[in-house]
Amino acid sequence: MSDIANYEQEMEQEKLANANFIKLAKSPHHEDREKAAEIGSEVIKERIREKAMPLSMFTWTTTTNDQLVPQLESEENMRYFDYEVDSPGSISVGLYNNPHNYTFAGRRGAMKFYKIMTPRMSKDTNEMRTYSYDIRKIFADNIVRDMAITLNMNWLLANQMCLGAPELPNAWASGPQWCKVYGGFGRETIPNIKVQMIKVQGDRGFEVKQLLTNIVTAIQPAKMGREESGGDISQTMLKEGVVEDGWGGMKWYITMNTQMVPDGTIWGFTDEKYYIRCSHLQETTMYIESKFDMIEFVAMANLGMLIVNERNVIRTDLEGLNL
């Protein structure tokens, strides 16, 4: 079958999908509208994981009502998580001496759940009868973009609050969590990021396992010559694109958003079990209402994220990046 025939067949299939979706959305029966909303929700869930950084990078669990903890002065939904207990370490003692007494204390963190909602979008169904592309994807694109921007901004802001001032250590870290490296992307860039996390951790032993940067920064190794140990890497990237797995022994996540993750910025994270907890109280869900010839869409999610260790996130800014 030719490409033109395949295209025409896909257009016919999408027209049928549109007609079925409109029929369900306009139905007077509540069950049909729920089915239309369920179809839309599945499209959104699939696509939002591609756009929202935390959803693609970390493991998400589901929180039940039984796991929520009532608050004294508000009705906010919150869940508590236990942190790992710090130990003072062992010491050498003489034959007739005893070690100092130490009482350990555990810490807990509170995960606050918040709703992300889209604007209420409405459309006259008569205007959608001749659409030759999937209506569900049109709404999903707008919904996914709006919800992903909110989720990404909240997460990156929380990370930024952990860093403190550039080049200065925090009270909880042994070294600066936010460093600036001059000279752009070179042979020493990845080792420097690993060393930065080691200095932050002190003797705690956590390493960088995941990196986040934008596509402009991620493509920089393609410019490296063989003398910078980048010859083979450059050739692979020019032929196959950005390498996300295994480079430097870390998992790379690449975003197209150059505003939230500026050119030259690389975020580093330890293994997620030592860094963050992510949970849904309600996964992304679409709701549909129908009145006369108008249908109205709105989507919402109820979720929470908790950074369990402020030391386990770092940021490196590459100054003088040759774009």
Verbal overview:
The chain is of the alpha/beta class and 323 residues long. It has two domains: 127 residues, no CATH class; 124 residues, 2-Layer Sandwich (hypothetical protein PF0899 fold), CATH 3.30.2320. It contains seven helices and twelve strands. The strands form three sheets. Strands 1, 4, 5, 10 and 11 form a five-stranded mixed β-sheet that branches. The protein has a five-stranded mixed β-sheet with strand order 6-12-9-7-8, with helices on both faces. α1 packs across α2 and α2 crosses α4. The longest helix is centred in the middle third of the chain and has 29 residues. The chain is flat and about 85 Å long.
How would you briefly describe this protein structure?
The protein has 323 residues and is an alpha/beta fold. It has seven helices and twelve strands.
